[in-house]
Amino acid sequence: MALKKTLAEMEQSVPESETRKMLGSFFDEGTFVETDKFLSADGEQSSVVTGRGEVCGDSVFVFAQDVSVKGGAVNKAAALKIKRVYELAAKAGCPVVGFYDSKGGDIAEGAGVLADYRDILTASARLSGVVPQIAVITGVCAGCAAMLAATADIVIATEKSELFLTAPFNNADGKLAGAGTAENAAKAGVCQILAKDNADAVNKAKLLAAMLPQNNLTEANYFIDAEKSDGNITASLKGIDLVSAFADKGTVCELGEKFGSAAVTAIAAVNSSTIAFVTTDRAEKLTAADCAKIARFVEFADAFSIPVVTMVNTEGFAGSSAAELAGSVRDCARLAQVYANATTAKINLITGKAYGAAAVAFAGADTAIALENAEISPMNPEALAVFAGETDISAFAAAAAGMVDQVVEAENAYEAVYSALQVYIGKREDAPHRKHANLSL
Fold first, then answer.
1. How far apart, in Å, are the Cα atoms of 418 and each of 244, 273, 307, 310?
2. What is the largest CA-CA distance in the chain?
3. In Å, what is the CA distance from 60 to each residue of 219, 391, 400?
4. Helices (H) and strands (E) in the chain, counts
5. How far apart are CA 430 and CA 231, in angstroms?
C-alpha cells in the first residue's frame, strides 16, 4: 500500500503538460510509454519528456522539450534523457522524432551544458543513416539545438516557430530582417516542411513516421489504407501534380517546397509502397539550390533503400557568371555523384527535355523510360544542329543509342513505372569497400 502511495505522490510531482498531451496525439491511442519520467539531476526536474510508442503499429522513440519547465532549458537531466532515447533507438532500430521548444541551454550549468550538447550531437550523428530522424520545431530552436535539429533527415517547423544559430538579426535601420523565422529556414533549405500549427506539424510527422522504414536494414512498411492512383498520367502534368498522379491518394508529402525553384522532391506511396519522387520541371533550368535539394533528398532515400523515381524535364543547369562564382558546379557535381553512388532502386522517366550535363547527372538508373514526345540531347538543340549537324533528338533516337530502355505514351507511363518498381524494388547492389564517398565538395 505504501508503494502505491509513493507512486501516486511521484505521479503528482510530474504535472500533466501540453507537451505530454501533444505526444499522446502523435502516437496511436494508448501506446505512448513515458521513459525516465522521474529522472533528475541534482534534484532538478527535467525540461524534456521522453518515451516510445507506436505510429501506425510501428515503434518510434521521441523526446520533446517542455517549455513549461524552466523555459525548456537543456540541463543535465534533460541531456541524460535525450541521450538515453538515442541509445534505446539504436538498440531497437527505431526512428527518433524530436520536438523542439526551448530558449537554449541552462546557463546555470556553465560549461557543462556544452558537454551535454556535444554528447547529444554525437549520439545523433552516429544514428544518421541508421534510423530515420525527424525534427519538429514548435517554438524557439536556437544555437546548439538548431544544429541538432538540422542534422535530422527531415525538419518540420510551424509557421510561428524560430530556427536560428545566432541572434539578433537586425538591418542597419534596426528593424528585424526576417532571419531566424521558420519561413527563412524553409527558403534556405534548412526546414523541409512548414506547418500551420502544432497539430499540423504532428500530423505531418505522423505521416512521415508511418511511411519511412524503421531502420536501414528493413523495408518501409506502409499500412495506411489509401485509395490507389487511377494512373491517369498526361504529358501536361508537372511538378507536384505529376507526383500526385502517380501516388496513392493523400500520401504525398513534399519536402523543400520553398528551396529550389525548378525541382520537386516528395515522399509518397505507390500501391502502399513508399517511394521518393523527384521532378525537375518547375522551371526550364536547375539552379545550385535545386541540385543541393535533390542531392540531399536522394542521399536520404538511398540510406534507407527507398526507391527513387526521377521525372526528368529540364534544359540543363542555369548558367551565369554569378552562378559560377557562387560555386554552382560544386552542387551540380555533388548531384551527379549522389545519383551515381546510390544503390537503391532508381527509375528515370523522361517526360520532356533532357539536355546536356543535366541528362548525364541523372544517368545510371536501373531503367530509363521516355515519353514518346521526350527530347534527349547532349546540348541545346539549336547549338547541336550548328556544331554537329544533328537534328534528331527524339526519344526513339535516344533508344536507338541505348540512352533509354523504353518509350511509352503518357497514358501508359504509370504502368511502365510501376512495373519497373516491382522488378527493382528489392534489388541488391554492393558498393565498393570504402569508409565513405567524399560528397562534401
1. 14, 10, 11, 13
2. 93
3. 15, 55, 49
4. 15, 19
5. 33
CA dist 253 and 241 (Å) reads 12
Residue among 271, 237, 216, 214 nearest 97 (CA): 214
List all residues 6 or more positions away from 27 whose beta carbon is below 8 Å from its beta carbon: 53, 54, 55, 60
Give the integer Cα–Cα distance in Å for 192 and 152. Answer: 11
C-alpha cell at 64: 520533446
- Taking Cα atoms as reference points, which of 32, 34, 131, 56 lies closest to residue 90? 131
Prior bond of 168 cis (ω within 30°)? yes
8 Å CB contact between 375 and 396: no
The neighbouring-strand residues paired with 187 are: none
- CA angle 5/84/4 to nearest 5° reads 10
Distance from C-alpha of 352 to C-alpha of 314, rounded to nearest angstrom: 7
Cα-based torsion angle of the residue sequence 98, 101, 105, 107 in order, rounded to the nearest 10 degrees: -160
Look at residues 373, 354, 362, 365 and name the one whose alpha carbon lies nearest to residue 411: 373
CB 111: neighbour CB atoms within 10 A?
7
pLDDT of residue 37: 79
Looking at domain 14-208, its CATH class is: alpha beta
Task: Decide if 14-208 and 221-424 have a common fold.
Answer: yes
Encoded amino acid at 286, one letter: L
Whole-angstrom distance, CA of residue 86 vs CA of residue 314 = 41
Which residues of the chain are modeled with pLDDT < 70?
A: 1-16, 40-45, 71, 104-112, 167-179, 221-224, 319-327, 381-387, 389, 439-441
Q: What is the pLDDT of residue 1?
A: 43
What lies within 8 Å, CB to CB, of 187 at 6+ separation is: 258, 259
Domain boundaries, the chain: 14-208, 221-424
Task: For residue 102, give the nearest of 148, 34, 51, 153 by alpha carbon.
Answer: 148
User: 221-424 has which CATH code?
Assistant: 3.90.226.10
